[in-house]
Amino acid sequence: MRQEQASSTDESGEQTTFRQQLRELLKNGLGWDDSTLDTIINGVQHPSPLASSERDGIHRSLIAHAMNLALLHRLLERVPDGAAYVREKWQGGGKVMLDHGALRTVRYQRHHEAGLPSGHLAFKRILEPLGYHLAGEYPLEKIRMCGFVYASEDLPDSLSQFFVSELYPEQFSEQFQAVVTTILGTEQDPLSSDDDSLLEQLSEHHVLPMNDAVKLLPKLVGCFERYHELPSLEDYHLLKTESREMAWISTEGNVFNHATDRVDDIKAVEAVQREKGRAIKPEIEVARHAKVQQTAFHAAPVSRPMTSVEQAQPSEDALWVPGSFFEFIQRGEIVDNEGRRSLDLRFDSSNAQGIFRMTSS
């Protein structure tokens, strides 16, 4: 199967070195115990050839892969259906092939310097030093957003891509824009000047000493969180009336929106998951402009405390809102003008907007 080719390297030599470095990064950087390390490292297809070098330091592609594994692990803790699917796949001897992950951002004019860079630029600053480049833009006109795809320069076929979407508040009402400005005006940047220095070093040399890589990894993973205050109950419902995507961002921020397993037979996967009674999308999205098919579980609900400011006596209530989810993708092959075959790594705007509906309810 195609995804098994990604880590066909022998377990000796460089492959062993890379696994040792990966374990050290995750254990010392994130405090993972041996059980978690064994489960994740043995249950995921690793990009091949994944660079490792004991002499020069830890290569950017290895740091990127460690970050992706950490994001998967954290997402599975929040998404029960995804965790159950992955656990069953591992128990059956299968491995997850991380195709891409997604997150949502907002482009808006900030009036202070403490917040994040605007829109997808907040993640461009960490993805580019990790060896990613902007590989495509996908207008999402129905939801007044755009998707920016970042792909690895080192391992484009097998290192997980990022689909970073960006919402445009100026295309909504003035009241909507005012609420967005109020909420995002409370943002704080999770990266320090020391973190920026390590990213600059990684960008220039493509490697970091292990000690520095261990310091940087948790800060990279930590970027995928909410760094603004929760909205009031009234503001949340106002945002939701005009944009369910902005309502999601208001409660979840830049949390990892979903992770995606690249599979060979998406119809078979869908049938099995539906038979198990899991809340999966009612139909498979089939791309019009790429050989790509996608489906997903519905978002797992999460509880967020919100204050009602319109009541005579302000009160705080826990509101259940959509959280993150788990996706599946099947990629076909394309043939260039010279007859060479390659995996179709593109996305499709229509597909993406269909997948966005997983967080609408």
Automatic annotation (TrEMBL):
Its EC number is 1.13.11.93. Pfam families: HGLS (PF07063). The keyword Oxidoreductase applies. The keyword Iron applies. Its cofactor is Fe(2+). Signal peptide: none annotated. Keywords: Dioxygenase, Iron, Oxidoreductase. Gene3D superfamilies: 3.10.180.50. Belongs to the 2-oxoadipate dioxygenase/decarboxylase family. This is 2-oxoadipate dioxygenase/decarboxylase.
